[in-house]
Amino acid sequence: MTESGTGAAGDERLRRWRLVLGGEDDGTGLALGGRDAAMDGALGALYGGGRAQGQGQGQGERSAGLGGSAPRVARWLGDIRTYFPSPVVQVMQRDAIERLGLSTLLLEPEMLEAVEPDVHLVGTLLSLNKAMPDTTRETARAVVRKVVERLEERLAARTRATLTGALDRSARVSRPRHHDIDWDRTIRANLKNYLPEHRTVVPERLVGYGRASRAVRKEVVLCVDQSGSMAASVVYASVFGAVLASMRSLATRLVVFDTAVVDLTDQLDDPVDVLFGTQLGGGTDINRALAYCQSKITRPADTVVVLISDLYEGGIRDEMLGRVAAMKAAGVEFVTLLALSDEGAPAYDREHAAALAALGAPAFACTPGLFPEVMAAALEKRPLPVT
User: Fold this and answer.
1) Helix/strand/coil (H, E, C) string of 274-285?
2) Whole-number Å distance between alpha carbons of 44 and 169
3) Higher pLDDT residue, 250 or 46?
């Protein structure tokens, strides 16, 4: 391989290519030492060509294999946290779990203590929840709590502020105080009173914002698919459910489902309890879940139902669509999120998504950052910010 450039810049390019390509015959002619050799070993253990760890490490040759030993994996996890930034560590952990079949090792406390917590790791732990020994369960809960606290710190304040504003705007009054006047709606409501000679509108009727009181003004039902493909969405939905439940003006219900339906509303004060109350995996019966949610609606015109699912329905399709149509006809705001995560475009049932769109309930993926705006629009009964 011929590298353009000389001096420090050229050496750095050769170094980077050597770390990317691995092995003595990569064409760079560069041997690694010290920290670079250790980084190369950590990469080779995950992405190498199958040589056992510890073999061929002498001349910077990339090693491979983490074996089935939890202590070895724990050491590797410590190494990658030393050599790489947190986002890279999370990608490498996810790759290790998927490529090397390390899920069962997550049941061992020493490995969990070494791991870098993230949403994907939480999803894996939840899928292993029922198989988890008691000696590991508390460590796993500590890992999950660390992720949940980070998410709450990032999302809670903005969500509360956005939804409080939406609740204020949705509670309009006809005799507002000056600082509560909604000037945009007031002008539109009084355009017939425009006086051309004075170039002004005479506001015979004022439209204003009401201030959300402590009484419950809106009800929100989060109906979350807990099939294995929805793991990240379950994590984010649990955090948002706890945030919404903390707002006195909202009555929030959280329902999770696969082929069975579980109401986790009474655990919303602690999203970690919510998450450990889920059971990732299994089939999907959206119709049954919506039937349960529909039975709990007492004020349709003041209710928002958020279905979070990839729409791969194992239940009765026509009944599912019929329930959505009935709820919308009664005045329910119905939102369908194909995913609630940062993972990009999800796989989903396009036929079902099109059928929901035809009912006036467009289905779309939503990032955690967009979710407060989606909920605000639904609470105010205005068009959703569909992405």
Assistant:
1) HHHCCCCCCCCC
2) 56
3) 250
User: Greatest CA separation found in the chain?
Assistant: 91
320, amino acid identity: M
Q: What is the pTM of this model?
A: 0.70
* Cα angle, residue 37 at apex, residues 36 and 42 outer, rounded to 5°: 95
CA distance 333 to 24: 62
Give the count of beta carbons closer than 10 Å to the beta carbon of residue 104: 11
Distances (CA, A) of 339 to 70, 238, 305, 313, 328: 33, 13, 15, 15, 21
- The residue with greater pLDDT, 4 or 219, is 219
The pair of three-digit structure tokens given for residue 28, joined into one six-digit string: 């760079």
Q: How far apart are CA 14 and CA 143, in angstroms?
A: 38
Q: Hey, which bits of 44-156 come out as E strands?
A: none
pLDDT tens, residue by residue, 53-77: 333 333 344 444 565 555 667 677 7
> How many whole angstroms separate alpha carbon 387 and alpha carbon 365?
7
Q: Is residue 245 a contact partner of residue 252, using CB atoms and an 8 Å limit?
A: yes
